[in-house]
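thread: overnight batch results

M.L. [08:02]
morning all. the overnight job finished for the chain we discussed friday. pasting input first so we're all looking at the same thing
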Amino acid sequence: MSFLTRGAREQVTHLLDAVCTVTLAPRCAACAQVLERPTNGPVCPVCWAAIARISPPFCRTCGGMLPSWRVVDLAMERCAQCRRRPSSDIDAGRTAGQYDGTLRNIIHAFKYERRRGLARRLGKLMRESSDDLLRDATCIVPVPLHPWRRMTRGFNQAADLAAVLGPPVMHALWRTRATAPQTGLTASARRRNVRDAFRLSPLLSRRSRDAMLRDRVVVLVDDVRTTGATLEACASVLKEAGVRDVRALTVARAALTDGPTPRHPAPRTIS
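M.L. [08:03]
and the structure it wrote out:
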């Protein structure tokens, strides 16, 4: 519709929205209400506005929200969990929101219902929460899927998110074995599950490694962070390859529990 004037494009879009709403009654991927403007995407404006964002002060390691500036030890700037188990390979972390309610439903639709168009809007949330992490990054490295899982799912959600963040994307990591899903595992089981599960990609040339990794700033990207075990395993490989500064960026941070982490909800049926 590039040949149309702005006013004409708006009229055509309004007509398409009306036709789609009346004939198809498409539902919001998060709240299941009928979309008034389906051409704007599969999530309604109310749900995007309802996302529980993580606001400063942040834990400098995992990106989680600290209780208050008044209780932040400026020499530490880390949450209780990160102080109990210090990260040696992730230098900074950030996340856009809490993995519950609306954001959980949106990520579920993106990841398991293949609503890949949501990557652009989710990436916008990530950029808004992490401009300082991305500003001087040499490249972005998405957390890889095992080739079999990549084939069965049809895409890597981390790669889709990385592609809309701005800096160059480098597929520097390779998952060497098909690990069990992390959902439902305890923190210690998660760490065992991904131990030695990653290596540098065999497709990565020495020239690319030296240009994009050695003594560089790299941002690791994934969709959800819970214990950080997967991100830590990836960061360890990158540090061994000579990366100076590894930063971790995710869409959401899942709440930590003493027992097994909750499983993803079953796909929702919309009637």
